[in-house]
Design a protein that fits this description.
Blueprint lengths: L11 H9 L4 E3 L3 E2 L5 E3 L7 H8 L11 E3 L5 H14 L1 H10 L16 H13 L1 H21 L3 H13 L9 H4 L7 H20 L5 H9 L20 H19 L11 H6 L6 H15 L8 H33 L8 H17 L4 H8 L8 H34 L6 H25 L2
Antiparallel strand pairs: 1-4, 2-3
Helix pairs in contact: 1-2, 3-4, 4-13, 5-6, 6-7, 6-11, 6-13, 7-10, 7-11, 9-10, 9-17, 10-11, 14-15, 14-16, 14-17, 14-18, 15-17, 17-18
């Protein structure tokens, strides 16, 4: 099965076949290809054999419109899933109890109006991609509260909620093997992952009852104000508020869940990350998000023991020195790219590199006096407030490391797409500098333990 207007294979049939193993998935119409050939008869199970047949054809109608699940989620199920989410993340629950003292998340009432296909996608997402399902719930709660604090009208808050719940539906149509690769992606594979944005946008656009604002928010949730986002590299003037609210919620969730994991850090610790990224989202969205996280910080009670403080004092100077060395390589890359009148294929790499340079400067971690200050501290001189400051610096260093890793990935993608046209020397030089940055990333792993 291929996607409309694309030669890419649509793997949604594979997801449905896996769901069918524990929950019947039945065709409610004769499923035909574009030539009218019968692929699956009405009333049949979408099992592995049916999925293999579907994968070989371009269908006349989207598959999700031609099947029904025997075990669909509903509003009470969604409420129970939210209770499980809050139980799994006590810091999120504490923030919820602070802003919703009555315990009512009013946006859930909108779920009763979801189209059946929307419920189908949520159900398959929960069963096939449970991490993305949890992410959808997490992002929806954060996004609606950022929207409320921003002062959006009720109809726009509802659109943000719908967009956040459904923003990763496109992932269900990508190759399971591709999603299982994690970060070890080639430039072509990374481009394939980015397709989930357009797939999700097109899906929601077809569903009755989904506001156009929600569709646009999904289309823009990976775009950034400085033009470094994807899939179109849009800039601030071309972006909508709802999309930037969803983008902010998506970033906060990724930091809290993926980067922090079980480290004991909480939503309050996301604030240093946002302070480094003030120009990648609308300023008003940044202020609303920080206002929400400030309420989480008011309830923070994390204490640092001697072992944790000692670890900070040992590792942080290493990270500062690493950033100084990496910054010098980055400056060489920028000198090359900024010296080209028309960088063409490298324009996105230039933007990302300029952003990372701003972030390093803003953090101050590459300055020699910061490392000297840390090296002058001892267990006896570090109190809890200083320990929290050191931990904030560590989090900033980790974020900068991620940004540099992302810069290398963007650079590799640019190299893969770059045409020759008299710029072979630039291509070779950029490739050499990216190799140096890869070496620095490996050194980070060796010296800091990853």
């Amino acid at each position: 099965m291929t996607m409309a207007g694309s030669d890419a294979t649509d793997f949604y049939a594979v997801r449905l076949a896996r769901v069918d193993a524990g929950c019947p998935v039945i065709s409610i119409d004769d499923i035909q290809n574009e030539r009218g050939t019968l692929i699956v008869r009405k009333g049949s199970r979408i099992d592995r054999q049916a999925a293999e047949r579907i994968l070989r054809h371009r269908l006349v109608r989207p598959l999700e419109e031609q099947v029904a699940l025997g075990c669909m989620l509903d509003v009470p199920d969604l409420e129970a899933c939210y209770q499980a989410l809050f139980a799994a993340y006590p810091d999120l629950d504490a923030l919820r109890r602070h802003v919703e003292p009555d315990g009512v998340y009013s946006e859930l009432a909108h779920a009763a109006r979801f189209h059946p296909v929307f419920w189908q996608k949520l159900t398959v997402l929960r069963r096939q991609l449970p991490r993305e399902f949890e992410k959808a719930l997490f992002c929806a709660w954060l996004a609606t509260w950022i929207a409320r604090l921003h002062g959006l009208p009720r109809s726009d808050v509802e659109a943000v909620f719908i967009a956040a719940i459904g923003h990763d539906f496109g992932m269900l149509h990508l190759s399971p093997a591709l999603l299982a690769k994690g970060d070890a992606l080639t430039p072509a594979e990374w481009h394939g992952i980015q397709r989930h944005v357009d797939i999700g946008r097109d899906l929601l656009r077809r569903l009755p009852g989904v506001p156009p604002l929600a569709v646009r928010a999904v289309a823009e949730h990976h775009e950034r104000c400085d033009g470094t986002g994807y899939p179109r590299g849009l800039e601030e003037k071309d972006l909508c508020l709802a999309g930037q609210i969803l983008a902010m919620a998506d970033s906060i969730q990724a930091i809290r869940v993926n980067q922090f994991g079980g480290s004991g850090r909480t939503l309050a610790n996301v604030m240093p990350f946002l302070q480094l990224n003030t120009y990648t989202h609308f300023e008003s969205v940044y202020r609303a998000a920080m206002a929400l996280l400030k309420r989480a910080k008011d309830h923070e009670s994390r204490k640092f023991d001697a072992g944790q403080i000692g670890h900070l004092l040992k590792r942080l100077p290493v990270r500062c020195r690493w950033l100084r060395g990496t910054e010098r390589i980055l400056e060489r890359l920028l000198e090359m790219l900024e010296g080209v009148p028309d960088p063409r294929d490298y324009r996105r790499l230039l933007r990302v590199a300029q952003r990372v340079r701003k972030m390093i400067t803003q953090a101050g971690l590459a300055q020699a006096d910061v490392a000297a200050w840390v090296e002058g501290l001892s267990l006896e001189t570090v109190d809890q407030e200083t320990a929290r400051d050191l931990d904030d610096l560590k989090l900033m260093a980790i974020e900068l490391h991620w940004q540099i890793r992302n810069l290398v990935r963007v650079g590799e993608s640019c190299l893969a797409k770059a045409e020759s046209g008299g710029m072979d020397h630039l291509k070779g030089t950029v490739g050499f500098v990216l190799g140096e940055l890869r070496g620095e990333l490996a050194r980070w792993d060796e010296e800091t333990g990853g």
